[in-house]
User: Fold this.
Amino acid sequence: MKSRTSAKSPVARVKAKELLKRLGRLRGRLPAGFKFDRLDANKRSSRSTNRSTV
Assistant:
């Protein structure tokens, strides 16, 4: 079985760590009582992508 690790350059590793650090700052920043409605989000997403181009 092949290893799932990829050979990343040191620069890519640093960028990935920086990105994760920046994303970590956003953790827990949703208002109290917030509930994500996946079905509603998918409905809105499909409406915006089903536009016909003329």
About this structure: The chain has two helices and no strands. The first helix runs from residue 10 to 24. The helical segments are 10-24, 38-49.
